[in-house]
């Protein structure tokens, strides 16, 4: 499938070969292991799929299947280089941050809408 060549793995997960990255993506069925976004459901989603080091490389995280998960770029960015005891803890943090960001976004869009309506 040509989609595999569009996943930007070489840039985002440098130490992984595209073959190693593809194995992780296929194992996870191209689904973000944090928020559940489905990279196979549409083209836009496929473009933002990355492979995340659960324990960051900067913290000596290994390039093993257990330490690698499929993650969409927003979740990967939110998680950053934070260190968690395991994937479950990382996931709890990412989902909580997403929820907070979602609430901020709702407030902001509501504010913009009232402003637009007032003019
Ligand atoms: Zn995600």
Ordered list of secondary-structure elements with their pairings:
Blueprint: H1 9-12, H2 18-27, H3 43-47, E1 49-53, E2 68-72, H4 73-79, H5 87-118
Antiparallel strand pairs: 1-2
Zinc ion binds at residues 32, 34-35, 37, 71-72, 74-75.
Could you characterize what this model shows?
- The protein has 119 residues and is mainly alpha-helical.
- The chain has a single domain, classed as Orthogonal Bundle (DNA Binding (I), subunit A), CATH 1.10.30.
- Helices cover 49% and strands 8% of the residues.
- It has 5 helices and 2 strands, in the order αααββαα.
- It has helices at residues 9-12, 18-27, 43-47, 73-79, 87-118; strands at 49-53, 68-72.
- A two-stranded antiparallel sheet has the order 1-2.
- The termini are far apart.
- The model has no long low-confidence stretch (mean pLDDT 89).
- Zinc ion (ZN) is lined by residues 32, 34-35, 37, 71-72, 74-75.
- Zinc ion (ZN) binds at residues 32, 34-35, 37, 71-72, 74-75.
């Amino acid at each position: 499938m040509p989609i595999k060549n569009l996943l930007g793995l070489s840039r985002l997960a440098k130490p992984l070969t595209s073959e190693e990255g593809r194995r992780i993506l296929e194992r996870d069925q191209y689904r973000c292991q944090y928020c559940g976004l489905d990279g196979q459901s549409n083209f836009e989603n496929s473009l933002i799929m990355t492979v995340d080091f659960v324990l960051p490389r900067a913290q000596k995280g290994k390039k093993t299947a257990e330490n690698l998960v499929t993650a969409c770029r927003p979740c990967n960015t939110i998680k950053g280089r934070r260190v968690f005891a395991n994937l479950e803890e990382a996931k709890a943090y990412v989902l909580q941050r997403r929820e907070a960001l979602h609430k901020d976004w709702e407030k902001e869009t509501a504010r913009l809408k009232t402003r637009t309506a007032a003019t």
